[in-house]
Amino acid sequence: MAWPTVPERALVLVPVGSTEQHGPHLPLHTDSTVAESVARATLRQLPTYDGVLAPTIAYGASGEHAGFPGTLSVGHEALRAVLVETVRSLSLWAGRVVFVNGHGGNVTSLDAACAQLRDEGHDVSWLGCDPPGGDAHAGRTETSVMLHLAPDDVRMSEAAPGDTRPLPELLPLLMAHGVRAVSPNGVLGDPTGATAEEGRALVEVMVSRAVRLVTADLADFRGRLVDPFRTAARQGAGEA
Question: How far apart are CA 51 and CA 139, in angstroms?
Fold first, then answer.
């Protein structure tokens, strides 16, 4: 894309991922690939918008994975600063910015950055690539998604279960000592039953949700886009 072809006051989707271990079978770019793929597919389903896909921010807050070679973490504060400066620059020509996040460790930075930017008057928000029922890390869910999106980068011959305990049970250890103290192979879950067909269905759900969120454009005070269907359902239940 050359600058004269950039739409005036465009909607800009900015994928935010990570470079971190995803077990012995998934690539370091898993989160970035998911975020970029969901963002790209979302724009395709919004043809009436003047949409632009920004380059992926591939370095996130991944300190919990620092015990594994290949992980590159910039930390929460550095990521927050990058997000803030990205929007300040984009706002010189973009009309609206939406971050599409593929890594749970980035949430703190996204909340802080978007809250600050919205206070400054920028039209910015964010959404996560969160498939329903997803496992914690490099398990069946992420492996299925990557078998669909980037099958040549998945080494199913190396796939093996990690720690399969529920995440709430693991969190104290994860927070204190990182993933390696809980799972020597870096997997939280069991990837061995993953399929590309399941991954395709999961991606469709993520994209449909992203389209719905971007279209509704309802954000909370942190800039998190809120699903209007779920909000209406909660209100209806409260009124019943």
Answer: 33
> What residue ranges define each of the domains in the chain, with the CATH number in brackets?
3-226 (3.40.50.10310)
Amino acid at 147: L
Q: Per-residue confidence at 131, pLDDT binned at 50, 70, 90?
A: confident
User: Which two three-digit tokens encode residue 175?
Assistant: 């927070």
**Token pair in block for residue 230:** 């779920």
Residue 231 has pLDDT above 70, yes or no: no
pLDDT digits (tens, 9 = 90+) for 21-52: 999 999 999 999 999 999 999 999 998 898 99
* Closest by Cα among 18, 56, 52, 19 to 37: 56
pLDDT tens column, 154-178: 999 999 999 999 888 998 999 899 9
